[in-house]
Fold:
Amino acid sequence: MPVTVTAIDPADQAAVDAAYRIGAAAQPIDLPGLPPYCRRRFEALVWHPMPGIATRWALARLDGSPAGWLRLELPQLDNTDNAVAELVVEPAYRRRGVGRALHEHGLRLLREAGRKRVVGAAVSALPGGPERDRAGDAFAVAVGAHPALAEVRRRLDTTALDRAALDALADTARGAATGYRTVRWRQTTPEEYVADVAYLEGRLMADAPTGDLQWEQENVDADRLRGMERALDIRGVRRYHVGAVHEASGRLVAWSLLTLAANSTWHAWQQSTIVDPDHRGHRLGLLCKIENLEHVLAHEPGLRAIDTYNAADNVHMVAVNEQLGFRALDAATEWQLAI
Structure:
């Protein structure tokens, strides 16, 4: 019986449940060592996309059984030639044409939407690191995608922190940050900083290395940031922030964010860390990272591991993370396909 692919209706709970079970089965194979696949996050992806993003979902069945799914993200406020794809196949049904059927279905949708390119990620092993399934990279090559950005995931073991070294780094950073003060908050950004955080969030694609990815700087304003925060609240994501305020202007000019999924107490993600270009050279990124590490550990006593991704050639941020104790775990490639 051939593979059949149909759109997932967000109101079809059975289809949403089937897709969730596929993701829950695939994650331990594709990216082991993470908390269980979060149902709350997954359902929110279906029902509550991020602001400025239209989504398309499809479910593949093989011999009538749910076997894989595809999620397409179509930016509406910027990058309107681009799309992002996540394609997941149940491990028991791999290498039987499910991924190819989902891919071809997705291409039809993207052509109808007028998109010119699509980006997707695949995990791989590092030399000497733990084994990872190479099927994602092989599939990307087979469909004609090109590697556009190499990334490395690093992990910080918070149970083995060198506190003396961190204190010394923090003292050095504070000494370079004369004229700045740090502020902390959880969850929603205080109103006095929301415009500054939106500006910094929007700069991420302009400032971080992006390799050969064709991706525009994103248009993030206060309203969009508030919408992103509401979407994260729906997902149950716990968020810890530290920012650096330029005392002369009152502007928040550096910012670092750590997040924990709704179903996780032991694992967090180091998300954005960014400094306004006009305020670099004062070790503000390092200071915000260290203080945010203290911040999250004060509220999350079960936290044992923090993961972060960096572009492989982001020499400055990699050096900062390695100073803090992050160590390379595995790799990921952002693959880009012209449509």
Q: What stands out?
A: The CA atoms of residues 183 and 243 lie 5 Å apart. The first strand starts at residue 4 and ends at 7. Residues 155-329 form a domain with the Aminopeptidase fold (CATH 3.40.630.30). The mean pLDDT is 96.
